[in-house]
Amino acid sequence: MNPCRVCLCLMVVTVVSMVPERAAHASGSWFWNCQRAEVTSFWEEQIAGTELSGRGSICSTPYGVWSSLAVRGLTPGNAYTVWWVYVDQPQHCAATPLTPENSSVPFPEPVGYAGPCGIADFFTPDESGVFLNPLAVFGRMDSVVAHSSRRTFFRDDVRDFVPAPGSQLWLFVFGHGPADTTDKRQLARQLLTPEDPGSGAPHLGIEGRPFGYPAAVLVTEY
């Protein structure tokens, strides 16, 4: 057999073997909705003295959501976490960027990074004024202690979840200050929780202890 034809056959077999089996049999069709966006720096500059930048993508497939996020400008030795955020109905967002004048945040929230949505929608009250069913749903994606290169690459997937049409998916980067390598319990909190008591004390944050803070965010729409 012609050596070139043998090489071609091997290449085809290799490519086919790299395709996930479930994706290859997606009910007879391929439906991948990949959205790419730039990172918006949040409060990293005010707190750590550097502005974060980067780019990432979130792909919605028939079998779940996949993401990747490249971030530059991290402070070496600091801990960072990244959080999935899902906003099912952005049209119902509060459209009220938080500021020190209208809330307890330390710095003004950037305007327009997610259309009408923002931090206020993590604490949406119901008719009785209780935060029982907020618009924003969040969960941990990835974490890192930044190295001297000041950059890193985050990635994750949520299997068997497909965002609704018109919804938003965010990748929210939280900063946690210098990683505490002398206290493994505190380091675990830095790498596994938002360190935000408002999200659920004491497991997601402890009053009076170091707080996590929004450092940067990437927003996509579906």
Beta-strand content? 35-45%
| Helix and strand composition category | alpha+beta
**How many individual helices?**
4
Q: Give the biggest sheet.
A: 5 strands, antiparallel
Rg calc: 20 Å
Mean pLDDT: 87
Provide the helix percentage. 10-25%
Compute the separation of the termini in Å: 49 Å
Give the overall silhouette: globular
Given as residue ranges, the uncertain stretches (5+ residues, pLDDT < 50) are: 3-29
Number of strands: 10
Lateral arrangement of strands in the main beta sheet: 2-10-9-5-7
Q: Name the helix and strand elements from N-terminus to C-terminus, one letter apiece.
A: HHEEHEEEEEEEHE
Characteristics of this structure?
alpha+beta; globular; 222 residues; four-stranded antiparallel sheet; 4 helices; five-stranded antiparallel sheet
